[in-house]
Amino acid sequence: MAAVTDTLKLFLSGDVMTARGIDAVLPHPGDPRLYEAYVKNAGDYVRLAERVNGPIPRPVDFTYVWGAALDEFELRQPHARIINLETAVSRRGRPEPKGINYRMSPENFPAISAAGIDCCVLANNHVLDWGAAGLADTLDTLASNGMCSAGAGHNRQSAEAPAVLLQPGGRRLLVFGLGAPDSGIASGWAATDKGAGVARLEDLSRQSLRPVAKRILENKKPRDLVVASIHWGGNWGFDIPREQRWFAHALIDEAGVDVVHGHSSHHVKGIEVYRERLILYGCGDLLNDYEGIEGYTAFRGDLGFLYFASLDPGGHLQSLDLIPTRLCRFRICRAEGDDRQWLHDTLSRECARLGSSIHPGAKNAFELRW
User: Fold this and answer.
1) What is the DSSP string of 82-121?
2) How do residues 7-59 score in pLDDT, each as one tens digit?
């Protein structure tokens, strides 16, 4: 086993959706108008949440939404913190005709910086909700805040390029962002040679794998570790399609990927360790404004995990600690009692299908075994 000093510690999260209601309670909210079928004002999402869980102070400070996560970051000191940022960061643009359009104010972006996030993956079905202007502002906001992005860009070359995170000892962590059509990413959102967009896969076939593997191998140098962060699949349902498992395994076998970081599902999904590499098929939502919204309650989208993975210098998984969380009043809280037990039982059931298991760990965590 590698010495502790050789271990790379990662924080990985599911969807961070800091638009609409969350944007409305932060210090500098954007235009509250919405273009949805039923809800026309972001403040309505605040009122729905308050009806269920009680008053939300307004304005909250930029650290508010992270709640208990900040204590875990301080305790665990991950070397890199990677999230799927599922919103445009802009005051401009026109809403895409898709029913739901996420946008947070650039002046509220310190709410992301407050958690020390290193990389925002943008290859998802909401980053272009406000068109090319919204994406341009998002990219500019991240860059001006010294934050890396992956999976979207001003053209295909920048969208497909990895985020490069320098690590202790001169190592590099490469993060590639990818988005699959079945997560709701429209074909017109794909970046082109001269047009902005996301790194969109045509499907999860071998034909789609080849160019991805080629650019990963071209960018990867000796001692580099690679995260492939993929937005794939629908929002609800525990089943993992056969093509997802094949694609995840092929990324490891043929492209030298060390961690497959899957997201899109609004609830946690099973975890696999394949050839000592971590595959997270669906990390759920870390932050959203869904409190009080009816439907799909059996999936408990308000419950989730903070994912803390430790890798050895070869990219092999040493440990995965999972911190149970619950969203309450637009804030990450610790899941306790029945909520914690539900997370344990549900993830245990789903992991058993993939050859792994969940057990009580130290410092409030569950730990993965394989």
Assistant:
1) EEEE-SEE-S-S---SSS---EE-GGGTHHHHTTT--EEE
2) 999 999 999 999 999 999 999 999 999 999 999 999 999 999 999 999 999 99
| Three-state SS letters, 259-276 | EEEEECCCCECCEEEECC
User: What global pTM score does this model have?
Assistant: 0.96
**What kind of fold does domain 4-369 have according to CATH?**
Purple Acid Phosphatase; chain A, domain 2 (3.60.21)
Give pLDDT tens digits for 105-130: 999 999 999 999 999 999 999 999 99
Contacts of 84 (CB under 8 A, 6+ apart): 13, 14, 15, 16, 120, 121, 124, 229, 231, 263, 283
Helices marked H in the chain — which ranges?
20-25, 43-53, 68-76, 110-113, 131-144, 156-160, 206-219, 242-255, 337-352
Cα–Cα distance, 277 to 245 (Å, whole number) = 13
Task: Please state, for a pLDDT cut of 70, what percent of the chain lies above it.
Answer: 99
What does the alpha-carbon distance between residue 127 and residue 338 come to, in Å, rounded to a whole number?
35
Query: What does the pLDDT look like over 147-173, one tens digit per residue?
Result: 999 999 999 999 999 999 999 888 999
Report the C-alpha gap between 87 and 179 in whole angstroms: 14
Q: What percent of the chain has pLDDT over 90?
A: 95
Rounded to 5, what percent of the chain is helix, strand, coil? 30, 25, 40
Amino acid identity for residue 38 in this structure:
Y
Q: Integer distance in angstroms from the first to the last C-alpha of the chain?
A: 16
Torsion, Cα of 247, 253, 257, 260 (10° steps): 40
Interaxial angle between packed helices 242-255 and 206-219, expressed in degrees from 0 to 180 and rounded to the nearest 10: 30
